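Long-time lurker, first post.

We've been arguing in lab meeting about whether zinc ion would sit comfortably in this protein at all. Half the group thinks yes, half thinks no, and nobody has a model to point at. So I'm putting the question to the forum: if I give you the sequence and the SMILES, can you give me back a predicted structure of the complex? Inputs are below. Any interpretation is welcome too.
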Amino acid sequence: MTDCANCIAASERAWHGFTTGCMVCAARRISRGPACAFAAQVGYITPEYRAELYAVAGDVHWQAMHELVRACNRGDQPTWPR
Ligand SMILES: [Zn+2]
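Top reply:
Settle the argument with this. Predicted structure of the protein with zinc ion, as tokens:
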């Protein structure tokens, strides 16, 4: 469960709000962006898409961020481990 108002809203209905600093919001934002759409289309992690993952998660966690973005694209309501 989350205490992020935008994540709660997004779990209940189509929602466009994102909270700065919330990893799940960041994943949801990236999952809807053109870089992610293009990466999914070509079937690999493009430099542009990876740069977006890096920007929010850094070089340690960008792959976990990628999994979070994938979960968002599946329509899951993922949580970021704290
Ligand atoms: Zn959130």
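For your lab meeting: Residues 47-74 form the longest helix (28 residues). The chain has one domain: 5-74. Whichever side wins, do check it experimentally.
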